[in-house]
């Protein structure tokens, strides 16, 4: 196997010369490989960013819940204290803390402005609940709160967390599916280019067979050429794609998801596999095309 | 060496050859003649496996040609040197590289074959044209280059299809001398030609058998040649 890979890369100068240099198929293969690799870099960046986002949302939101105390103003403090007592006694709750008036005003500020007179409005008291690794029994907690703190409503975020995480995971799957589609399209284009090159060189193949060339030798000459072209084209495409990703704005809270598109840490090494995979796709596509074509010419 | 046993070949729905039997024994020199379209080229192609018979059997070196796979067929071609009338070359390679093509495709070490190649180029009189491209060659030069390419692997059999079809008398005699020399080296020669003067000239130099295709069948030609 190592010998075959070495033979493919190093080649044989004499053998390489038997197939004439072809014009448009060479340029087509280079262009297609570069374009596909460029798109693959972005699909990969999208997929990885979506994955990170899904994991982060799932992790952050799964650990937090909010308890809302909807009670008349004169009972609010008592019910809040009762709710905190219940939460302290609930297994799986790591901590529970009532938000201060300033913190609640800060939460409402984006909608009502900073000068909100919170005291004069019937705003419910919010309690932030953080859970342990094991988590708590949400249904059991709701039943107990219903009995002991009638104005308490537990929101464990699952209502809106699940669609968000599902959306991010779908986006990741879409990115991966796009990479597969790009690979398939590249295989199809290279197969067409290889077939065109084989058809254009029918006389060369005839002469080679006449002088005793085995089909493996003839196929190798074409396969090597297309594989190396795909490798070079993909290398250029990946380089341009990585520069494009690198030039995108860094992740920020304000920018949200769009500014988080890119690679992080070791993720920057992943696109480097694309030229090798592109060369593999070209190798398989051209081998199949050459063997079929040579078989048909018998 | 090459044996045709009741071979028939249909082409485009019609019968071109029927019940053809012949044997090329080692070291023999055969001419194949007949009118244009009689099937001379087809018969040659049947001999080296470029075509499969529709009936009968072709055996080469004790192997049924029809049963050979593609790799075995390539090996057969290395034992049978072929010179086509139209002498196809790889036009992007120099004459010397074209002549060396059988060595290249069979994986020979070219540095070890350099002396043989030069000797062969000299033998066919193409040393001066070694670096020319095939389209620059005259008809006679192309035929000699094709002959050199056909024999560079030292095949047991050399098959030539109308080798003198596109050359003048002097060149045809030169080509004939090369073929006769090869035969004297022990090679089996089969030449398809409609040039009876070539056959007569060969008879003066070497023992030959003349086969004629007539009415879809192969016959041994008589003393009229």
What would your notes on this structure say?
The complex is a heterodimer of chains A (298) and B (225). With 298 residues, chain A is of the alpha+beta class. A four-stranded antiparallel beta sheet of chain A has the order 2-3-1-4. Chain A is 68% helix and 8% strand. Chain B has a single domain, classed as 3-Layer(aba) Sandwich (Rossmann fold), CATH 3.40.50.300. In chain B, 35% of the residues lie in helices and 26% in strands. In chain B, the strands form two sheets. In chain B, strands 6-7-8-3-9-10 form a six-stranded mixed beta sheet, sandwiched between helices. Chain B starts with a strand and ends in a 5-residue tail after the last strand. Chains A and B meet through helix 2, helix 8 and helix 9 of A and helix 2 and helix 4 of B.
Question: Could you give a quick summary of the protein structure above?
Answer:
Chain A has two domains: 2-58 and 162-296, no CATH class; 71-150, no CATH class. Chain A is 68% helix and 8% strand. Chain A has ten helices and four strands, in the order H-H-H-E-H-E-H-E-H-E-H-H-H-H.
Count every beta strand of chain A, where a strand is a DSSP E run of 2 or more residues: 4
Helix content of chain A: 55-70%
Q: What would you call the quaternary organization?
A: heterodimer
Largest interface: A-B, 23 and 23 residues
Gyration radius of chain A, to the nearest Å? 31 Å
Q: Helix fraction of chain B?
A: 25-40%
> How much is the average pLDDT of chain B?
89
Summarize the biggest pleated sheet of chain A: 4 strands, antiparallel
Q: Name the CATH architecture of chain B.
A: 3-Layer(aba) Sandwich
Protein name (chain A): Cell division protein FtsX
Domain ABC3 transporter permease C-terminal (chain A): 179-292
Membrane topology (chain A): Multi-pass membrane protein
Transmembrane segments (chain A): 28-49, 174-198, 230-251, 263-285
